[in-house]
């Protein structure tokens, strides 16, 4: 039997997830959609789906068994709380929410419900290359990890819509989450450095260099470049005690012409992580059909929110520390927090 899903937000990623859920994956039916822009929702809706007037109407509909939130970040809290109150599994695109207080409210509601319902859209955890990289680190055969270099480059971002805060509160959350997951560690402090500004981004603060201090003492450096023209380029390399493990360059057709021999670079996140998004939803569908969630949790969304907040404070220089609350047992065992 198919899981009946409702989608909130039918913009760029909402439309991509509707395509995935209707054309790529099986065992799921998109039965409802909603968007502030009703015309956009109607245009994106699969033929059989109902267009709901509001997120609350969609969530409370008996037709909808599980919800996918693809609206913008500030709307997520209310929509998540409504899903939890209705006891419906919910996949929420990142960021979970946009403030620490909101993350705590969502966590409190889910803990009171007593079962995980929320999965956050940190799709890198479902990427086969990242999973192989984590398996090498977890095996211990290179010794303990010491440094992680993470590179996050976008060809461009929508002019006017992408503000100077967004590299830190919208883009960095992916690198923060993957660092926490790869290293099985928590971020305890953040520094930010702003180098020479690229002339391509106008007033945008770009690129940005971020240093994440992990509880174990591992340092993670993150380059965020959101206007680098040549493509979407995600890299990661972990230096351990006796070796280095890195993400491979994505296999792509080799092009030979008068400019030499080269490999194509993905245009954007949809191309680079297409299989990761598919896998993320495959695993979510199994969990949601069982009335729960898997993978990145409300706790992970909370931790990433604190990193984003600390990074925004750290732009003016200096070290900003992060203090997590005690991890509720719903989200697994506590992460070791003491530096060695
Ligand atoms: P988008 O193109 O602006 O789409 C968001 C849609 O949600 C818009 O149609 C917007 O309408 C609608 N919306 C906003 N608030 C709403 C509300 N309260 N109720 C119903 N609909 C609402 O943005 P996007 O690029 O798809 O991003 C959506 C979310 O996905 C963001 O949280 C973003 O960070 C995340 N995202 C994740 C990834 C990833 O790699 N995992 C990649 C891209 C985006 P209006 O335009 O009229 O406001």
Brief summary of the model shown:
By secondary structure, this protein is of the alpha/beta class. Helices cover 35% and strands 22% of the residues.
3D structure, described in words:
This protein is of the alpha/beta class and 340 residues long. It folds into 2 domains: 143 residues, Rossmann fold (3-Layer(aba) Sandwich); 188 residues, 2-Layer Sandwich (Dihydrodipicolinate Reductase, domain 2). The protein is built from 10 helices and 15 strands. The structure holds NADP nicotinamide-adenine-dinucleotide phosphate. NADP nicotinamide-adenine-dinucleotide phosphate (NAP) binds next to α1.
Write the layout of secondary structure elements.
Layout: E1 3-8, H1 12-24, E2 28-34, H2 38-44, E3 50-51, H3 55-60, E4 66-69, H4 76-86, E5 90-92, H5 100-113, E6 118-120, H6 128-139, E7 145-153, H7 166-183, E8 187-193, E9 208-214, E10 219-225, E11 233-240, E12 244-246, E13 254-257, E14 260-263, H8 269-272, H9 274-289, H10 298-314, E15 320-321
Parallel strand pairs: 1-2, 1-4, 2-3, 4-5, 5-6, 7-10
Antiparallel strand pairs: 7-11, 8-9, 8-15, 9-10, 11-12, 13-14
Helix pairs in contact: 4-5, 5-10, 7-10
Bound molecules: NADP nicotinamide-adenine-dinucleotide phosphate.
